[in-house]
Write a structure and sequence with these properties.
The protein folds into two domains: 272 residues, Rossmann fold (3-Layer(aba) Sandwich), CATH 3.40.50; 34 residues. Helix content is 38%, strand content 16%. It contains nine helices and eleven strands.
Length: 342
């Protein structure tokens, strides 16, 4: 019996060792400087949610979450990570699209960017976009983590921000809180027709391939919305939360990380069925190298409208009509016969 217990304990520790450590970095920016042009968010609530499910998570908030602060913490975390670790990078804040510096950089002519504390909303003579953290720069940092933790590790990027679209009202006119803007950084002086052409050319990168190399771990990018959508906050018990952070935390509480396919499906389904997100047509984007695909939603066929003759009421009316058609001539014939007899 003791030997069996020892074997089970050793097996458990071996399994835990295979999982490696789960290292979490949560970045949340609720209050940007007034001069930046960005509206206030409830990102602090998101950081609290992450720390509730991952108590050892490292957090970086508000004025500490500058571009330098974020890059420095990413670098430190990469230096301390080990082979086989699971790395979760969580960002909760604003997102924006920014004109690319080269025409071949993006098919749609814009980069997606997350907005650090010291990044402005508009291009000015004193700010040229140097503090925007573009998807290219962020991707380089993620690939570094993938090499650090190796093929037995896992890297998860949770981006609770949004990129611009051209359909919703501005933050000043909208009571709901969303995380981004319809303004393209660097396009302030472009003519309207050029901006319209950029918007028409928005290229959704949700299905673009991710690198898979022998020395790199699998990676999962979980974005709160597609690159052409806004990310709306959800309200639970009177508190606002980033939609992705809320359902990411709920999924972790319900199913954990051991079954990653079920975990991702739980996040996706939670957001897909949220009434606020349904109203805005917002769906999460989950790009990954583990083979997960969004579940196909089966839409039940609407019942075809029945013609009046196929409904119960219609059947009764049809019966009466045919009865009258048969009875009236019969009554006429009988009446004539009776009259003739007299």
């Amino acid at each position: 019996m003791k030997r069996l217990c020892l074997i089970l304990i050793l097996a458990l520790f071996s399994y835990i060792g295979l999982l490696g450590n789960v290292r979490v970095l949560s970045i949340g920016i609720s209050e940007y400087p007034e001069s930046s042009g960005w509206n206030k968010l409830n990102a602090h609530n998101d950081v609290l949610l992450i720390k509730a499910v991952f108590p050892s998570a490292i957090s970086l908030e508000d004025n500490q979450a500058t571009l330098y602060g974020i890059k420095d913490l990413l670098s430190n975390l990469s230096n301390t990570a080990a082979k086989g670790d699971t790395i979760i990078i969580h960002f909760s804040g604003h997102g924006q699209q920014i004109l690319t510096s080269t025409s071949n950089d993006e098919i749609d002519g814009v980069d997606e960017a997350i907005i650090p504390y010291n990044a402005g909303k508009r291009k000015t003579t004193s700010y040229m976009g140097e503090n925007h953290l573009t998807d290219n720069s962020f991707g380089i940092a993620i690939d570094r983590f993938r090499r650090t933790v190796g093929p037995n590790g896992l890297v998860i990027a949770v981006i609770d921000a949004c990129h611009s679209d051209s359909m919703d009202k501005t933050a000043d006119d909208d009571k709901e809180i969303y995380r981004g803007t319809d303004e393209i950084f660097g396009a302030e002086n472009l003519p309207d027709e050029k901006i319209d052409s950029l918007r028409e050319a928005y290229h959704n990168q949700d299905s673009s391939a991710l690198a898979t190399l022998p020395d790199m771990s699998n990676v999962i990018y979980i974005s709160a919305c597609r690159s052409d959508q806004r990310n709306y906050e959800v309200v639970e018990d009177g508190k606002g939360y980033g939609s992705l952070t809320y359902y990411f935390s709920e999924a972790y509480r319900r199913v954990g990380l051991l079954d990653m396919m079920e975990f991702l499906t739980t996040i996706y389904s939670g957001m897909e069925n949220d009434k606020t997100l349904q109203f805005h047509g917002q769906v999460p984007s989950i790009r990954n190298t583990i083979g997960w695909e969004a579940p196909v939603k089966i839409i039940p066929l609407e019942p075809q409208p029945q013609s009046p003759s196929t409904t119960p009421e219609g059947n009764r009316i049809t019966l009466w009509i045919w009865s009258l058609i048969v009875l009236i001539p019969l009554i006429i014939v009988i009446s004539l016969w009776i009259t003739k007899k007299r």
